[in-house]
Amino acid sequence: MSLSNLIKNWSTLRVKRPYEDQYKDKDYKWAMVIDLDACTGCNACTTACYAENNLPVVGKEAFSKGQAMHWIRIERYWGEGDELPKFPDRGAQFLPMLCQQCESAPCEVVCPVGATHHTPDGLNSQVYNRCIGSRYCSANCPYKVRYFNWWQYPERAWPNPLEQQLNPDVTVRSKGVMEKCTFCVQRLVEAKNRARTEGRRVEDGEVTTACAQACPTSAITFGNLADNKSQVAKMWARQQVDLAKDKQEKSDENMRGYRIFEDLRTYPSIVYMERIRDLQA
Amino acid sequence: MIQATDEKDIEIERRFVPKAKDINDEIAWAQINKDVLRSMERPRLMYWVIFLASLALFGFGVYCEIYQYQNGMGAADLNNPQVWGWYIATFIFWIGMSHSGTLLSAILHIMHADWRKPIYRFAEAMTTFSLMTAGLFVLVHLGRVWEFYYVVAYPNERWAWPNFNSPLVWDATAIGTYLTSSIVFLYFGMIPDLAICRDNAKGVRKKFYWLLSLGWQGTDRQWANFRVAYLTVACFLIPLAVSVHSIVATDFAVSQQPGWHITSFPPYFVAGALYSGCAAIITLFIVLRYVFRFEEYMTMPILDKTCRLTFAIAMVWTYLNLVEYASVWYGDDPVAKQTLLFRATGDYATYWWAMNFLGSVVPFALAFKSLRNNIPVMLVVSLLLNLGMWLERFMIVTPTFAHGYYPWTWTDHWMPNWVQYGIVAGSFGWFSMLFMLFCKIFPTVSMYEVKEMVYHRFVARKARA
Fold first, then answer.
1. Which of helix, strand or coil describes residue B220?
2. Residue environment code for B55-78, b if the CB has 16+ CB neighbours within 10 A, otherwise e
3. Does residue A114 come out as left (phi exceeding 0), alpha (psi in the -120 to 50 range) or beta?
4. Contacts for B197 with CB less than 8 Å, ≥ 6 apart
5. B1 pLDDT band (50/70/90 cuts)?
6. Out of B78, B144, B166, whose CB is closest to A177?
C-alpha cells in the first residue's frame, strides 16, 4: 500500500472471493480430491507430512493434552444411530483432515497482522515471521486445522544429530507461531520455477503433495484446478462441484463428491468423496 | 424585590427538583479539604500489609508470566481447540470493569446528576487501572509478545500495515485511544484538587503537586477554560466507552463460531461492562468509606442511588442475555443451538447456571431498600455480581471452543493449570496495588465538586432565612 492508495476509493481494493471463473485465465489453482472409500486409515499421509514439513513429534504427554502438530490427521468416526452397525461389528470410518485452503477463509479475515493471506494460485498461506501468535485464526477456523507451536519444539524434537533429517526447503518454526498445511508449497514453488524457466505451465502429475505421494491406495489426488485437463479438474467436474458455489446443484443425488461445511461459505479447495456404506456388511 | 425572586427560586426548586439530601450541607469547605487530605497522609500498618500482599500476588503473576514466556504458551495448558483459555475471558472482564468510571464521571456529568460528585474520582481511577490490566492480558496471551507492535498501524519502511479487517486491530486501536483519553480525563478533573494538595504539602510532595497542578491559581479565566475543557473531554469519552466494548464484542460477533456469531453481542457486552463496573464501584465505595472514614462524603443516599443504577443495568443485561438465548434457540442454526444446550447441560453446566443465578437473580437484592442500606450485605452482593460477570465471560469463551463446529475437536472438561490461575490472580494484585498507590498519592474524593454541592445548599439556605 502506498500513499496514493490511501486517497483512493478503498472499496476498489477489496477482494471479493471467490467469484465465477476466478481462475479461468489463471495458470494455477491448487486443489485436492480425497476419496474416503479408498482411505484405509493407515496414517502414511501423516507420516509423510511429518517428514516433509519438519513437523515435530511432540511426545505422549503433549499429544494427550491436545498439543499435537499433525497438519494432516486421520479422524476416526464410529457408527451412530440405531440402524447402523457399530464397533466391533464394523470398524471406524476414516476421514483425513487437513487445511481446506478455503477460498473465503475465516482465518484470513481475522488475523490482526495479515500473517495468513491468500496467494494468487489459491493457497491459504502462513507467514511465520509476521505471526504474533494471537491464535485468532485458530479460534475462527471451523475445521480446527491450525496448529500452534505451544513449546519451543526444535531442540526437543530433533536433538543432535537428528537435525540432519530436516527438510532444508522448509522453515523450522519457533515457539509462539501458528502453522498449518501448506499443500507442500515448497514443492509447488520449485515446480513452478522449473516450468517457468522452460517456458511452460506445470503439467499434471509433475508435482504432488507429500500426503498424496505417500498414500498407498491413491485416495488423495492433488493437482491444478485451473488446468481443465488435470485429473483433479476432471474429478471436480465429474462430481459437479463448483468452486464458487456454496450449494452444489447436482444432476444425480448419488454423486459422492462434497465439501465439508459448505454452508459456512468457506469455499474449500478439497472435495471429499463419500464412503459407500454397505449396511449389511 | 431581590428577596422575592429568591423565594420564587426556592419555591421552584422545592416543587420541581426534589432532591434527596446527598451530603450534609453543614460541612465547611475547610473541613472538606482537611478530611480528604487526611486520607493521603502517612499510611497505617494495615495499609502496608494489604499493599505487600497485593505486591506478592502480582509478583507471583509476573513469575508465571516469565515461566510462560520462556517455555511457550504450552506452559499455560492451552491446546488446539482451547486456544484462548482464561486470558481472553479475564481480558473482557477487566475491559468491562473500566466502563463505569466513564459512566459516572462523563455521562452523569453531562446529565447534571450531582450525586456522582463525591464518588466519581475513584471510579475514574478504577477505569484507568482496569484498562491497564486488560492491556496486560492482551500481551500475556500473545504467543510472540515481543512482536506485539505489529498490531499497531505505525508507518514503517516496508509499508507493512496490520490487517484492518481484523477485530483485533480495532481492539488495539480502541483500547489505546480509550486508555489515553481516560488518563487525560482523570488528570483534567484532578487539577484543581492537585492545587489544593500543592498548597498543603511540604518538601518533595510540594514539588510533585506543583508540577502536576500546572500553575493552577483558581482565577475566573482558569475556571472557565477548565469547565469547557472538562466538558469537551467528557463528551469525547462517552462514544469511546461505548465503542470500546462494542469492538471487544466484535471479536466474537465477527467470527464464525457457534455461540459467538450473534448480532446482539455489542449491546450485550456494553451492558455487561457497565454492570460489572457498577458492582465494582459499590465494592470500592464500601471499602474506601470504611478505610478512610469518608462517611460524610460517601453517604448512604449516594450508595442507595448507585445500587439503584446497578439494578437498572442488571435488568438491561438480563434482558439482553435472554435475547441472546432466544435468538439462538429460535434461530435456524442447529450447531449454535447445540452449543447453547451444551452450556446448559454439558461439562460447564454448573458455571452456566451459577452465572445466570448470580447475574440475574442476585441483583434483586438491590431492589429492597433494607438490603441496599445494609453495608455488609451490599459488599457481599457486589462481589457476587462481579463473580457472576466473570463467569459470563468464561461461559462465552470456553464452551464454544469445547463444543464448536467440528465434532472431532470436542473436548472434555477443560480447565486451566496453575500458570493461568497465577496470572489471573496476579492481575488482581496488580490492580489493587495500583489503586492503593493512587489512594495515597491523589485525592480519592473530588474536593472542589463536593464544595459545589455544599455551596448550592448554602445559598439556598441563606435565601430561605
1. helix
2. bebbebbeebbeebeeebbbbbbb
3. left
4. B37, B40, B205, B209, B213, B442, B443
5. very low
6. B144
Measuring CA to CA, which residue among B77, B47, B16, B82 is closest to residue B347? B82
DSSP state of B359: I
Chain A positions in Cβ-Cβ contact with residue B148 (cut-off 8 Å): 132
Cα–Cα dist A44/A74, whole Å: 10
A178-212, pLDDT tens digit by residue? 999 999 999 999 999 999 999 999 999 899 999 99
The ipTM assigned to this model is: 0.87
Closest residue in A to B161 (Cα) is A113
For residues B375-404, give the mean pLDDT. 92
**Single pTM value for the model:** 0.90
CA separation (Å) from A79 to A85, A133, B248, B406, B408? 6, 37, 41, 17, 14
71-90 of A, contacting B, C-beta below 8 A: 75
* Per-residue confidence (pLDDT) for residue A70, from 0 to 100: 92
CATH 1.20.1630.10 fits B40-464, yes or no: yes
Q: In which band, very low, low, confident or very high, does the pLDDT at A279 lie, cut at 50, 70 and 90?
A: low
Which phi-psi region, left, alpha or beta, contains residue B16 (left: φ > 0; alpha: ψ -120 to 50)?
Answer: alpha
CA distance B60 to chain A (A): 22
> A264: number of CA atoms within 13 Å, CB side?
26
Residue A106 Cα, gap to closest chain B Cα (Å): 7
CB B422 within 8 A of CB B58: no
For residue B287, what are the CA distances in angstroms to A127, B358, B378, B439? 50, 21, 11, 12
Segment A70-89, tens digit of pLDDT: 999 999 887 666 666 666 66
Q: How far apart are CA B231 and CA A218, in angstroms?
A: 72
Q: Which residues of B touch A132 (CB under 8 A)?
A: 142-145, 147-148, 150-151
Domains present along chain A, CATH in parentheses: 24-273 (3.30.70.20)
Pairing, β A30-35 against β A270-273: parallel
B18 pLDDT exceeds 50? no
d(CA B92, CA B269): 9
Cα separation, B361 vs B359, in Å, equals: 6
Is residue A135 a contact partner of residue B143, using CB atoms and an 8 Å limit?
yes
Residue of B nearest to A64 (CA): B79
